[in-house]
Every structure is written in structure tokens, then in C-alpha cells.
Amino acid sequence: MSKPAYLVEADGVNITKQIADRLLSLTVVDEAEQLSDRVEIVLDDRDKLLEIPKSGTWLKVYLGYAEGGKLPVYMGTYAVDDLTLSNGPRSMVVRATALETAPAMKDSRTQSWHDTTLGEIARTIASRSGLELRIVGDVGSIPIKHEDQTAESDIAFLTRLARRLKITAKPIDKALWITRRASDIPATPGVELAQRIVKGDEVSDWRATIKNRGAYSRVKARYFDQDEKKEKLLTVGPEDGNLQTFEEKQLYKTRDEAQRAADSRLQSLQSGEVTIDFSMEGDPEFTAEGQVTLQDFRALVDGTWYIRNVTHKFDGNGYRTTVTCGTKGEANNDWSAGRGENDKRSASEKGSLLCKTAQQLRGFSTQGGPDGGRNACVWAVNRVFQKAGLTTPWGGSNYVPDAEAALRRSGAQQVSGPEPGAIAIFTDGGNPPQAHIGIVTCDGGRVISNSSSRPTRTRLASPSEYQGFYSGPIRYYRLK
């Protein structure tokens, strides 16, 4: 059997030999969708002589097996953003998050797309980002009648479009992939992989949780008929008086989009909400957002599933891979689910969770907040924290000055400009000054907050647009 192996480069320098007798563990976590991939390296700091890496140091990580002098599998490039030193036992923990491969995709842009196709949009975005375009199958021919990209980055715009069309759009290294199935994207760029198949006797342990299986028989979706200039409803699935009908919340722009969304939803609902975790001997080819086919586990578990999360861990016990897969579904919107379970994550992970959750909750009703939801900016941010599994530094207060004071006391770092998931504080020149709070979006270019004039979380604007209402300087805080 081949021996597990790893290789780590720091700013282009191979440091594998320097850390070989100090490495306690190397963990790579590959997340689906917008959550940041990350790496954690735990080192023995017994003599306090380890060089302390600077924030922003680039780490290239390879993990796999030593075979015929070949390098292990490239896992990604990460930027150091978190460091923990301790004496019980003496150790250094280095945490880093995935490095953006196309910074130009985060630039805010305003553009209208009219009478075009998904392929043409992707081709334009790939070209100006310096990426090679990879379109799999016929997905590029999907017609786009009209889309407005207003003060929105290319990556945020593509992500929004992909979710609505039920397809995958993802930049990987130097390529932009557009495909109907995430499994069409190879784990190693340029290398086509077969469908992953795992048999029951290959795993050391597994667990499956199945909820709401067969609870729905039909799905309804709304769309706007451009010819008749009115909203219409379509339904997929057979009528069954004993089962529920699921209604899509989104208003789709065309019947075709509504049909695709309803078909996809019904397929996932018929399987129920399935989550499967399994561990096995290390396999570096497993990546999130792909698909895995399980065989010889048992009924309801066997089948092909969406991979949500993959953790690769190398330590004194060898190399293990843990996979979380199941139905793709949507995030649970039950706010009561958040109990601070993510409080121990790194600052960058918390930022990623906050910006993603804020964007998911855009438009939710805040009528239960202060003044019938019209003075609920902190209240709305509290709900985002709760759904993201994070505890607010200011407890349950709904007062902006309390929130800012608590951020400072908690050790949150005030940063010079907007960054994904940062807390934005606005004030005007009044006496006393009026204050407002929001969360920076995942593209780093805009802020989401509760509107002061209506009971919904609807305001999405650039910092400069906010300053039309709040003329004072904007303060941004990164959670500790």
C-alpha cells in the first residue's frame, strides 16, 4: 500500500522538510457553494523556535500518496488569516482560507444583459476576468431575455443567475466552469474523473439521517408571462390529497425557468432531506459539489448524492477522508437552529457565513421587530447571526450604539474598508446622531440592511449610496 504523503509551500518555498518532525495534523476542508475552503496546520512548538507566518502568506497544499516520485494531489492555494499559539501542549495552529483565483470577478459592475444566452454572458465574464471558459453540455444555450447587473460583482451575479437556473457556475484556478451538474467539474483542473462509486465495505463508519421523505407530491412555481403581462402559476407532480404541495417563493422570469425549478424541487422532495456522513481511507480526489454513488450500504442510503463537504485529515494515525453528502436542498430557514455552534470558527469563516446568510435572508419580514419592523436594523442583523449559528457580541440588544460598543469590547477588529461579512456601522451628523447597521455582501461591494421605511430586509446598496442618508464615516468591524 502506498504511503500517505503531503507537501506544503509557503510563498513559493517548499517547507515540507522544515515542518516534517513538527507536524501534528494537516486538515483540508472543501465546502460547497459560497463557503470558503480552508486548511488548518497544527505544529509542535516545543522549543518556541517556529517561524511565525505573516497574515496573507500564501500556502499551497498537496495531499495524497507517495507513488513513483509523483507529487501528491494539489488541494488548493490558501491565504493565512488566523494563528493560535498555546502551551498546553505547546503548539502553533495556522489557519488559512482559499485564495481567490480571479480577483477581477469581485469588482462591482453595472450592466444590462438583453436577448442573449447564458453562454454569451459567461464568455464575456470569463474574458474580462482572464479565465478560460469551460461549458459542459448544452447549458450555454439557455436563453436570457433580460437581466440587470446593478452595482454587483461578476461572481455574485453569476451565482445569483446559477441558483435561479438550477445550474453550477464556478471559477476554479484559471477556468470558469458552467455546467448543469457540479459533478461535471473535475477535482483536479484539466483531469476528467469518472463518477465516484463507494461501496459499503470501503468505509469505516457511516450515518444517514432522513427527514420528510415523501411529504410532498406536487410543486407550484410562479412566473411572469411577458406576452400577457401578468403572473401565472404552473404545477408539477400528481395530485394526492394525503400529501402536501410545495410552493416556490421566487417569481421566475419565464415559464421555462419556473418549469426547471419546479422539476428540480420535486425530485429532491421525493427523496426527502437526506444527510449522509461517512469516513474512509484518505482519497484526495473527493471534492465538494460533486456527486458520489453509494452501493451496498442499505435501502434508502444507496444511490447518487450531492457532496456538501469533504474533510481530508493527515496526522499520526494516517490519512482519512470524511464526506458529508445527501440531497442538495436549501438551507434551513428555522432561526431557532442557531445556537452559537459556529462561534469557534475563524474570523474569515464567520465572515463567509454572515455574508451568505444575509444574502439568503434578503427580503424576510421584520414586522416582529421594533416599531413594526421599521426600526429593526439591529434586530434583523441579530436574526442573521442566529441563522448562521453565531452569537452576537451585543446579546439581544436592538440599539446600534450598544452593538458597536460590544463589538469593540469583544475584540472585533476595525478594518479600513468593506470586506465580506464585516459589520458596517453608519451615522449621520445629527444631534444626537442617527445610527444604522448592516452586513457587507460576499462580493465585498455592497451592504445589506433592514430598510428604515418598510418592514422587510430589502436595502442592498453600495457604501457610497448609504452615505447619501448617513453622511458620517462608515466603520467596518471584522468579528474576532
UniProtKB/TrEMBL annotation:
<dbReference type="Pfam" id="PF05954">
    <property type="entry name" value="Phage_GPD"/>
</dbReference>
<protein>
    <submittedName>
        <fullName>Phage late control gene D protein GPD</fullName>
    </submittedName>
</protein>
<dbReference type="Pfam" id="PF05257">
    <property type="entry name" value="CHAP"/>
</dbReference>
<dbReference type="InterPro" id="IPR007921">
    <property type="entry name" value="CHAP_dom"/>
</dbReference>
<feature type="domain" description="Peptidase C51">
    <location>
        <begin position="375"/>
        <end position="444"/>
    </location>
</feature>
<feature type="region of interest" description="Disordered">
    <location>
        <begin position="328"/>
        <end position="351"/>
    </location>
</feature>
